[in-house]
């Protein structure tokens, strides 16, 4: 289903195939960009995220206690080929649809952004990324050095989102940097990923280039 949606393109009314991440609105002057799945829709008006930040909400089950812990568990899951662990570190369908999506401006009924399409696209991209990441890390002796999210922090009512996250590791062949995941949701002092990213290991001296 997800693959058919990706090949067929967005539903009627959605256009401009530009990459996005987790389905939010970004304001640029009087224009608002709806980011949904992998499509950007240019609209006039709209609303922006609630800037209250996490408001005492409980963390989601399986959340890491910090960005480094999440990075370490992802490395362990990839090295062991542990698909259950890797899945547990991501937002579940229910968590995304029932808790996260309603706080995203793109969920405004007036915008008519189809949540099922957004989730299907996230899932398709996640599966594609793991197919490419798995052979790079399976059995690899890697030590986590750092997890740094160098993008802006998006604030919402009960959670915040850390963006443009990079993982630095030490391997037998040297220090490497990779974007295993790009966006991390923080809720109630717990951290979970939106999805994994299609990227390759590169020497730390190499300038980062975002995955897909």
Structural class: alpha+beta
How does the major sheet shape up? Answer: 4 strands, antiparallel
Please tell me what the overall shape is: globular
Spatial order of strands in the largest sheet: 4-7-8-11
How many helices? The count is 5
Number of domains: 1
Q: Write down the overall mean pLDDT.
A: 79
Radius of gyration: 17 Å
How is the quaternary structure best described?
single chain
Order of helices and strands: HEEEHHHHEEEEEEEE
Give the tally of β-strands: 11
Instruction: Give the strand content.
Output: 15-25%
Give the terminus-to-terminus CA distance: 20 Å
Give start-end ranges of low-pLDDT stretches.
1-20, 24-53
Helical residue percent band: 25-40%
């Amino acid at each position: 289903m997800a693959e058919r949606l990706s090949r067929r393109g967005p539903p009627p009314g959605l256009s401009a195939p530009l990459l996005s991440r987790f389905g939010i609105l970004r304001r640029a002057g009087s224009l608002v960009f709806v980011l949904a799945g992998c499509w950007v829709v240019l609209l006039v008006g709209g609303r922006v995220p609630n800037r209250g930040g996490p408001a005492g909400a409980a963390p989601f089950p399986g959340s890491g206690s910090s960005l480094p812990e999440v990075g370490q568990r992802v490395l362990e899951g990839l090295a062991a080929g542990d698909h259950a662990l890797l899945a547990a570190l991501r937002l579940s369908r229910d968590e995304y649809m029932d808790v996260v999506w309603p706080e995203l401006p793109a969920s405004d009924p007036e915008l008519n952004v189809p949540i099922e399409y957004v989730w299907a696209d996230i899932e398709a991209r996640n599966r594609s990324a793991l197919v490419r990441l798995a052979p790079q890390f399976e059995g690899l002796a890697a030590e986590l050095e750092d997890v740094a999210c160098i993008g802006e922090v998006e604030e919402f009512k009960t959670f915040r989102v850390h963006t443009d996250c990079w993982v630095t590791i030490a391997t037998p062949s040297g220090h490497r940097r990779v974007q295993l995941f790009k966006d991390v949701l923080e809720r109630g002092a717990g951290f979970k990923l939106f999805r994994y990213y299609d990227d390759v290991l590169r020497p730390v001296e190499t300038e980062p280039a975002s995955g897909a």
